[in-house]
Amino acid sequence: MAMAMAMGAPREQLRVDARAPGKVILSGEHAVVHGTSAVAAALGLYTTATIRPGVDDGCVLDLPQLGVNLKWPLKVIEEIVTQGHLLDPKPAHVASYAESEWPQLGAFVEQQLGLHAVKGADAAVTAFLFLYTSILGLQPVTVRVTSELPVGAGLGSSAAYCVALSAGLLAYCGEIDLPQENGADRKTWIDVNEKKIDLVNRWAFEGERIIHGRPSGIDNTVSSFGYVVKFKQGQITRLHTQLPLRMLLTNTQVGRNTKALVAGVGERALRHPAAMGAIFKAIDEIAEEVVTILLTPSENSGGEKKKGEEIVSTEECGPHPVFKTEQEVRLQELVEMNQGLLQGIGVSHLSIESICQITASYRLQSKLTGAGGGGCVLTLLPHKLSSTSVELVKVDLEAKGFSCFEAVIGGNGVQVSCQTLS
Amino acid sequence: MAMAMAMGAPREQLRVDARAPGKVILSGEHAVVHGTSAVAAALGLYTTATIRPGVDDGCVLDLPQLGVNLKWPLKVIEEIVTQGHLLDPKPAHVASYAESEWPQLGAFVEQQLGLHAVKGADAAVTAFLFLYTSILGLQPVTVRVTSELPVGAGLGSSAAYCVALSAGLLAYCGEIDLPQENGADRKTWIDVNEKKIDLVNRWAFEGERIIHGRPSGIDNTVSSFGYVVKFKQGQITRLHTQLPLRMLLTNTQVGRNTKALVAGVGERALRHPAAMGAIFKAIDEIAEEVVTILLTPSENSGGEKKKGEEIVSTEECGPHPVFKTEQEVRLQELVEMNQGLLQGIGVSHLSIESICQITASYRLQSKLTGAGGGGCVLTLLPHKLSSTSVELVKVDLEAKGFSCFEAVIGGNGVQVSCQTLS
């Protein structure tokens, strides 16, 4: 039975879901710290926050992947946030939020966490308490957040967590339009209204500040708005491109120390200012060319063959040929160049190079994405590449102990869905 | 019995030896084609030409590594060179030499070569016939050329061949001073007099033109003058540095197509002018910094610890620590950066990366040298690195099927020696 939702009213008999994508950096990592452009895109793997009415005047937070399952009476939460002088259940609070006020909750949250909590769970719980009390006030709710994104792999899992939570809470309190229910079993996801995305994004950024201290704002912007975002000298520009790119994402399973990697690049830039400056400039040019390619109406959108979609390269990929369009050839070259430059500035890793070599044997170029030193590797997949070929590459990568999955890059941002509870 | 040699007179009772070093490109390969700087240095592996009086009015050419052992009556040689209109047994001939005149000897030379001749032997024989007849005229001689340099590995073996031959022939006809014999078994090598090196170099360049068509002149200049040479936009600058660098040179054993590699880089530069331009600029900056480091009076000259020779880095290299001076740390970073950039422009190879990864596991940075796509890889060895550590690295590399040898880079150029025949 279809039912239109009223705006602005609490939806106590509703289950609200909000999902937010991860992000990948297509190009410009590290150099961006030195003032050049970076390009990030939404990664079609989602973190989903489910908000439903609570029971017994309590608030339940269930984060299965972080080993967190907490239940607080609302009175306890009121005490916590009063101690923190933070209770202000209005979105307008965003403007007055002060970064320094939340860390004092650390001890409380740590004490709440059980044995099964994963490292970093305290920050996730603190961010939840902030977003929940600020947006919903003290309503009894049960919140569960699950994710397809690996944590700490540079894929923006914390931003997706904050965006999904913010959108879910805002939709639950009636600030965001929800889709009409179609009565079918299948969920209907709708994009968050453009005007409201900005609100989601601002809340999510506050959550990110609790988790990261001084986030760049790229991750939550990409997760909120989706598609592709360019970032340069603190300026975030959304690119009006909806070309999804097909990628293979491989997790090296090697943990990394982002701060140390960034510091290492900085020290090298001090020792070799001219050469490193030229390398940053080269990375900048690559990022700009990636933007140009992504903004060019093209054959990259997949699907039916269009006018101008010329196959310019046919290469062997194992037993199967790889058909590449001119744009794919250009993007692949840029990927190879970017990876070489990242190796040159010292942020690659044996595991990353090993993945690049395996995919190169299939004529597919790869680059690290994010901080490097481990983390994830992106491989551009031509749209015409058969799934059999992709399977072969995956088998090879998995045989070396890497985990990989195909994903669409540059798709939608945050979306919401709902279900009336009987 | 010591004996001073007279200048300018044929030395019929003498055996003359001339040896010329190979070369390595320290930095700037490929980018140099696009107008930036390259730095090349003498490689302490030699090609030696031995000239002794001939027998039976004939000329013998023995190139054991190329499978060449030819003997011609002088009358036949006269016919050949008369057909080629080339007989002009004076060094002044260099100025009037025309590149186009020698290829017509190809058919004759090919017909002379036996079954055992290695590919490229025809060019070596043609270059010999040119240098021999131009410098010595028609004297009966027996010439043997042997080399420590692998052929076709980008180590300047053809230039060393031409330089050794030119110097040997010029010394044999009295144009170059020879050392006094000391009567001992051990050969006394002396550097060719500075003024005469230029003559050797010009002749060698003509030989290189026969072998390569349009050589850059870097290889013969480095082999003739030794030490380090900077090359930019056709301008060759000798660097007055005599700092030998300690290197491990590893042959990937993978053959490569230099022309195709250079063309590939050129095409990529056309497709991505801004990004590739910035990469070439980065390579240029690296080459300039290498020059600056090499010209700075420093601790890199090995031997005794000097004032200012501070060990700034102590890293593990297998079971042994690696002590690196500040200059060595800087040079190693430049090597890593340069290799990344070369990978980025698409001229690396799986075998090259494999070598880089093996040496990196010992905290030693490597880069391809020359055209890439196979060929040789340079690894900078800190002067304080123990020979035991070097052995460990070599064992690892050789276990993967690579051949490697330690060599001094940036040492002397062409040298001569002689022996009175009884």
TrEMBL record, chains A, B:
One of its GO terms (biological process) is isopentenyl diphosphate biosynthetic process, mevalonate pathway. It comes from the Eukaryota. One of its GO terms (cellular component) is cytosol. It is found in: Cytoplasm. InterPro entries: GHMP_kinase_C_sf (IPR036554), GHMP_kinase_N_dom (IPR006204), GHMP_knse_ATP-bd_CS (IPR006203), Mev_gal_kin (IPR006205), Ribosomal_Su5_D2-typ_SF (IPR020568), Ribsml_uS5_D2-typ_fold_subgr (IPR014721). It catalyses: (R)-mevalonate + ATP = (R)-5-phosphomevalonate + ADP + H(+). Pathway: Isoprenoid biosynthesis; isopentenyl diphosphate biosynthesis via mevalonate pathway; isopentenyl diphosphate from (R)-mevalonate: step 1/3. PROSITE patterns: GHMP_KINASES_ATP. GO terms for molecular function: ATP binding; metal ion binding; mevalonate kinase activity. Transmembrane segments: none annotated. Its EC number is 2.7.1.36. Residues 136-223 form the GHMP kinase N-terminal domain. Keywords: ATP-binding, Cytoplasm, Kinase, Lipid biosynthesis, Lipid metabolism, Magnesium, Metal-binding, Nucleotide-binding, Steroid biosynthesis, Steroid metabolism, Sterol biosynthesis, Sterol metabolism, Transferase. It holds the Pfam family GHMP_kinases_N. Belongs to the GHMP kinase family. Mevalonate kinase subfamily. This is Mevalonate kinase. It comes from Ceratodon purpureus.
